[in-house]
């Protein structure tokens, strides 16, 4: 009896993820014990050496794909700060959300489909923070940092 080979969809085979910091395999797991509170039942891709290697990234609830690349504590802080300044660009009315993503794409030289802070490294995060601050300051728009208001002008 001949066995029939099942044809796999192109790109259906998942490659095993590895931590960019230590090279260890990455596991898909709940955020319990990593996030202080995990009421939303978030899932993460976490370095298998956690907590020794503290690199992880959140997973999309629907697609179960990573929302960016793994980040250590330093890069996560930079990404959060970059997000706060980036969001201020459209929340202040300075530009629409679509215009802000176009600005991000032009600033980083990435196509709009890839221009997301979760994919950015330290260099681009610092660039986003500096340029967003400059723009906010030029328009006399205040921003918040650490619960404290800063006037850009």
SSE layout:
Elements: E1 26-30, E2 43-47, E3 56-58, H1 73-91, H2 97-108, H3 122-138, E4 143-145, E5 148-150
Helix pairs in contact: 1-2, 1-3
Short summary:
The chain has 153 residues and is α+β, with helices and mostly antiparallel strands.
Tell me what you see in this structure:
With 153 residues, the protein is an alpha+beta fold. It is 31% helix and 12% strand. It has three helices and five strands; from the N terminus they run βββαααββ. The chain has helices spanning 73-91, 97-108, 122-138; strands spanning 26-30, 43-47, 56-58, 143-145, 148-150. Strands 1-2-3 form a three-stranded antiparallel sheet, with no helix packed on it. Helix 1 crosses helix 2 (97-108) and helix 1 runs parallel beside helix 3 (122-138). The chain is elongated, with a radius of gyration of 19 Å. The N and C termini lie far apart (80 Å). The mean pLDDT is 87.
- Class by helix and strand content? alpha+beta
Cα-atom Rg, whole angstroms?
A: 19 Å
Terminal residue distance: 80 Å
What string gives the helices and strands in order? Answer: EEEHHHEE
Unreliable stretches covering 5 or more consecutive residues: none
Features:
153 residues, alpha+beta, 3-stranded antiparallel β-sheet, two-stranded antiparallel sheet, 3 helices, 31% helix, elongated
